[in-house]
Amino acid sequence: MAEPQRLVITGATGFIGSAVLAELACIRDGAGPEGPHLVLRTVGRAAPEAGRPADEWRRGDLSDPESLRGSCEGADVLLHLASQVGSDEGECAAVNIGGTAALMAEARAAGVRRIVHLSTSAVYGRGPHRGMTVNAVVPAPQSPASRTRLAGEGPALAAGAVVLRPGLVIGAGDRWLVPALDQLLGATGALWEGGRALLSVVAVRDLARLIARLALGAGPAGGTVWHASHPVPVRAADLVGALVARGVLPPVDAHLSEAECLERMAASGCRVGPNQFRLVAQDHWYDSAPVWDAADCPPGPGPLTCLDEAAPWYREFLARV
Q: Which tens digit of pLDDT belongs to each residue from 93-126?
């Protein structure tokens, strides 16, 4: 039997990280004698719950670089999928910049041969963006999270990471996109600009497949940045309509301008801010085909096809918030 490949995964209890861990566990458990022998190690602040598919756990807190010492020892691959997405600049910087730099230093010291680092297309800031290739415009992040995640790409690229910038990610476990749409529709009672905006979206399971493929050696060399959404953008109206059809969002018939929606949002005390609103009200789509081609990973039929499976989770979650 071939020597095992040891993969270290941060953020394995989060939305995207848990999907990646599940995907890798399926590969590990389904591998025959000739398949990859994977050992999955998660790094986080708390031990995983019983029944989680990881083989090993190491305590590590990205806001405490000292706690990361030895986290990559003996590892072949590092998947850095954790981030801080709050509004506190200091907290975001500690995790997304300082924690990433410390983790990359550990990976380099351990001789890790493959690194995949998860960033976000939000680093580009305000649109409209239409079919952009990587860095076709100078990134101009608008939030503490996106500013520090852009800065965190620096040490990752210096360590030879493949850096991924997905757009909007949907599926069971999404606590941002669809809840934000629910808030927006509740505040405005209308679809903004007729829902004409084209958006880069990816189903979390498809993104997990891509990350797993890259982790196991397929695709591009390190030290590179890639967009990582589904190659075909989704119209905002089609996204909302698919969620309405599945009983996740309330029906909406009225159409308002972007400015009118912003006025209603301000009057209602909507928790979604103007910058977040513009991410779904204006074109924000990015050329993502190259990474799927480079990884020889079929992107699948599109992100809306995941909603039949995810709709019950969304309905239950929205009923609680």
A: 999 999 999 999 999 999 999 999 999 999 999 9
Across the chain, where does the E strand assignment appear?
A: 5-10, 38-44, 56-59, 77-80, 114-118, 129-132, 162-165, 168-170, 191-192, 198-199, 201-203, 224-227, 234-235, 255-256, 284-286
Q: Are β-strands 255-256 and 191-192 bridged in parallel, bridged antiparallel, or unpaired? A: parallel
- DSSP assignment, residue 246? T
How far is the C-alpha of 297 from the C-alpha of 219, rounded, in Å? 9
- Which residue, 131, 308, 127, is CA-closest to 233? 131
Q: Which residue type occupies 137?
A: V
pLDDT tens for each residue of 240-284: 999 999 999 999 999 999 999 999 999 999 999 999 999 999 999
Please tell me whether the overall predicted TM-score, pTM, comes out greater than 0.85 for this model. Answer: yes
For residue 46, what are the contacts with CB-CB under 8 A and spacing of at least 6?
A: none
Helix, strand, coil percent content, the chain, rounded in steps of 5: 45, 20, 40
